[in-house]
Amino acid sequence: MRFCIVGYGAIAGFHRDALLKMKDVRIDGVVGRLLEPAQKFAELCQADVATVHLGEALARKSVDAVLIASSSQVHYDQAMAALKAGKHVLLEIPMTLRLDEAERLNRVAEATGRTLMVCHTERFYGPNLWLADRIERGSLHPLHLHRDWHFFRRTNIGWTGRQRSWVDNILWHHGGHAVDTAVWLFGEEPLIARALYGPPSGTHKVPLDLSAQLAFPSGGLASFVLSYNAMVKDVTTHTVLICEEDTFAFRDGILTNYRGEIVAEEEPMLAVPRQNREFVDSVVQGRVPRTGIGTLLGSWRTLDRLERSALGLTG
User: Fold this and answer.
1) Is residue 315 one of the residues assigned to a domain?
2) Is 262 in the same domain as 129?
3) Is the pTM value of this prediction over 0.90?
4) What DSSP assignment string belongs to 24-88?
5) Range of 127's domain?
6) What gap in Å lies between CA 191 and CA 185, rounded to an integer?
7) What are residue 272's phi and psi, to 5 degrees?
8) pLDDT single digits (tens) 26-78
């Protein structure tokens, strides 16, 4: 399978490394906002082509699939163009910043018969898979998931310390990971979804703080606190899943039970190769991938409800 990678930032580098280790995959080309960094990235990818024009890359008959790791605001347009060009698509989160756009992508993927998989990488974390397996088998019954996610991003600097050309969205991007994990583990969409934004701040005057709550039909709860205002050295994430049988804490790739015993452990970014392998295998086998777009619309409906709540458009 021959890929075109769109984007050359930090996450694109993780995807590049994962793809280059697959014997049945080759990177055909790179598309970027600026030509010089796209050319440098293409050299690292052992790619034939580097361009700033997506249409040029999509016109190449040698390209089977497009991996989109560009800025969030252009994900929808680029994914739509790739699908209409007959390419399979592996799309970084957030797939869109609007529910109606996600629904349109799903319809076009179905109409064209192309695979559209979204990088909800948390569904591929080893510790999360450990939990999901036990929930599915009925040995764990989740009651409350809560997550604290802290990062200092008052200026437009990404997690690698590089200046960004685009503005991140705390709900649809990092909140999207958290919300999707909750919807996945509880196995249902919430009855109640409510949220609050902090005041617009930072260099771009957008909300940098988010508090959100979900209540599921089963009676389970999920609570989230996310901030780009937190004065921490690195991204810090702490997730707790309270079950009837045990309480689990997940931090820095380590999942522990209430006694402090390690029950599962894995560097989170090791999930990227597992995720990308799932995409390639699903295309080859003609099946729906684990995070195919149709399986994620429940999470996107929940994000839409949270945004409407945070903006005061719903009760």
Assistant:
1) no
2) yes
3) yes
4) T-EEEEEE-SSHHHHHHHHHHHT-SEEES-HHHHHT-TT--EEEE-S-GGGHHHHHHHHHHTT-E
5) 122-268+300-310
6) 15
7) -65, -50
8) 999 999 999 999 999 999 999 999 999 999 999 999 999 999 999 999 999 99
